[in-house]
Design brief:
The protein is of the alpha+beta class and 172 residues long. It is built from 3 helices and 9 strands; from the N terminus they run αβββββαβββαβ.
């Protein structure tokens, strides 16, 4: 199955003064340089409509850079796909940016690497769950599914995540 696309090309990111994910003006970044424009043949149509995020995707993910995030993995439960930031709705993974102890950082790094490998392994689907479309950080809330099974559940089975219960629990 192909991913959802628009019948017409949207403006390229460098041609508009808004964030692709939220439609609002992006916050000023003092030290971050703007990402280099994509070559025309590599330009992907960004998904900005929540309904369009649902569907099947086959992308190549890497670890996110500090700026210019488009299709990359932030940590074990957050990623960007075509300019849209997504929070995996059914799990919680250890923090990698502000861990409370060395164990949390190490487990968070392992969860991030494994999640990226799972996303890159084969096409997957994004499913909307519940009535909330976004969390308090403007991330789309989605369950990542392959062959009818949650990739989040796979991380839980491997000991790299916990099932989301509605609030974060300490890892230390």
């Amino acid at each position: 199955m192909a991913a959802a696309y628009w019948p017409q090309d949207p403006p390229r990111p460098e041609e508009q003064n808004v964030s692709l994910a939220s439609g609002r003006e992006p916050p000023e970044e003092k030290s971050a340089a703007l990402p280099a424009p994509l070559p025309e043949e590599q330009f992907e149509r960004p998904i900005t409509d929540a309904k369009a995020v649902l569907g099947q995707f086959s992308e190549t993910f890497s670890i996110c850079p500090r700026s210019g995030r488009y299709t990359c993995v932030v940590d074990g439960d957050t990623f960007w796909i075509r300019g849209v930031k997504v929070r995996v709705a059914d799990i919680d993974t250890p923090e990698v940016f502000q861990p409370q102890c060395d164990f949390e950082k190490q487990l968070g790094d392992r969860a991030t690497d494994r999640f990226m490998a799972l996303l890159n392994a084969a096409p997957f689907e994004l499913h909307r769950v519940g009535s909330r479309d976004e969390d308090g950080n403007d991330r789309k809330l989605r369950v990542v599914v392959r062959d009818g099974r949650s990739l989040g559940d796979q991380l839980v089975r491997e000991g790299l995540a916990r099932t989301w219960t509605g609030r974060r629990e300490p890892w230390c």
